[in-house]
Task: structure prediction
Amino acid sequence: MTLPSRSKQPIPNFGNGRTRVVVQVGHCSAAVGAREVAHSLKTALSQRSDACLVVTGCDGACFAAPQVIVTHPSGLQQRHTQVTAADVPALVRSLDESHPRCATESDVEAFFNAQHRRLLSCCGSIDPGNISEYVSIGGYDSLSLALSMSPEEVIQTVQDAGLLGRGGAYFPAARKWQGARSFNAPVRYLVVNAEEGEPGIFKDRHIMEGDPHLLLEGMLIAAYASGASQAYVYVNAEANLSAARMETAIEQARDAGYIGDDILGSGFGLQVHLRRGAGGYVCGEETTLLDTIQGNRREPRLRPPFPVESGLFRMPTVINNVETLANVPLILSDGMAPPTTPDDGGNGNKSFRRQLTPFTELGLESAKGTKMVCLSGAVRRPGLGEAPMGTTIRDIVYNLGGGLPPGHNLGVIGVGGPSSGILPPSELDTQLRPGMLHPSGVVMGAGGIMVMDDQAPVIDVVRRLAAYNAAESCGKCTPCREGTPRIVQALDRLAAGGAGADTIDELRYLADIVGAGSLCGLGQMAGGPVNSALHFFGDALEV
Amino acid sequence: MERSELRPVLRNMFPRERTYLLPALHYVHHELGSLPEWALQTVAWHLRVPPSEVYGCATSYSELRIESAGTHLLRVCTGLSCWHNGGRSLIDQLSRELGISPGETSPDGRFTLEEVPCGFICPLAPALEIDGKWRGRMTTDAIPSLVKSLS
Result:
């Protein structure tokens, strides 16, 4: 698949006649000094009236973090990568050069050229703490459009586009909305699942940190379509920055009349509550998440009844993932006519969203749109990317990630999250898509790609995944509570050497039992790493 | 915070409904650094939830601690990307420097060393969290001076 180069992908322009100095501060980049860079730049630029400092989220090029992006009034852009506070004086001096060097980082260019960005198109350039920037690029226009339609029409539009849930189950989003509508109740709830607690997954954080209003707008449209009047945003315990930026965004949206009793004069009202998780993989499971909001132990519920019928406080409840909801405003704006009048000072930002490639023109017939991919491990350019559904793992590892560092050879690839299985190098041409990527139990999950070099023993990789699942089992279902530790014990026996075919048989048996006898996805998928490892490396595992 | 202060604070901050259990636990945890038994009982009293259930709930979350940690809490990410990119050496080095194993607190109560399943900064592996602040692209060479700066 050929992708348009970055130069052909739209980039929003927030120029205001001054030099715009953007520091990307996210959960990741803050861990390598982005806050210190922002602080130094603030001091250094405080005396200058010709430059403004903007703190944004990250654009996903984590390997280059911390990044500072300077946009001159002429439109010329300079990207400074891996900036430290010590680099700031030189950086500020360079603002005055009459012909600033256009630093073309080939690695960064290649990283972006391997992507097709819709959800992330503004991350790293828009100010997450300033609702007017979001509005200036046509933000909340999709909400206005939705409110001018009937809820059924909104559901139909999203249904026709074929939006599947991005949390890992890939259930049609609009069907959930329709489902909740079909049950009469005094109140319906919308719960935003931002409890991103899977090791190796960091995509929802980027949206909440970098473009929180995109999520809010999607949430408002989903609530309108499903008839919800109360919304809960449930943010992971380890995502303080996401929670802080969401809180600011919610306040601003409330002040601007996008959240409240009578939104934009439509009569539709929504109250939004922000809740924080307290750790635990199982909390991302939708019924567990509902129970934690209600103040119960973190344990999944028996289904049916499904949450759309009896969810939060036993009322019809729609639970959508952050990435799913972020798609919604963009799907609605895909169908909008181009603006007829020039607006916002003529920089064309209002039509920004219409320059994005439409959702339905990307991806596979069975799964449209893009998928955010969390790439980490032994690659030259780890980070967060966005690529059409159907992109191969080879494209992700080699085009996006730049392949392995010199001197390293590809070992196994951990796909999805901790329970989604592993693939050997021979499966690199597997496409990212919903459903099984490989019959042995490998699924895309939430979209993690963890690359190991050949120095990482397969048995050790599988054991770490299995040990994680055992530690995170909530204990409600006996097969999961008792079975997952026994998987770890069997793997330990294999790793110690001398264990034979009996142990392999036991592993197969345990993986089957745990999968078949558990209520929620954690247990049902806990055998994934073991099954895929046995399939691809069966003989090699018997040390 | 004194014991006698918690009741009126809870009364002001949280309606007496069970749905506020986790927010209340978060608040107390933030204020005290852990959830001692008296605090759990006060939360139970305020929300009218049996103390046994409050305890059961509080202990089911990995980010809430019942026992308080040492003065400095060091947590090393052991996710796949970190573990195979130097995370394992970070733990070994820290164990040597501090003289404790993961999960232990030093006898003088100054350091607690823990492993966490993921710090969610996988692209910047290996990662280490010191007193709530994550640091990415860590090297074992940086450990001795880091530990010294905490002493």
Summary: The interface with chain A takes residues 17-23, 25-26, 47, 49, 53, 56-57, 60-64, 78-81, 83-85, 117-125, 127, 133-137 of chain B (CB under 8 Å). Chain B has a mean pLDDT of 95.
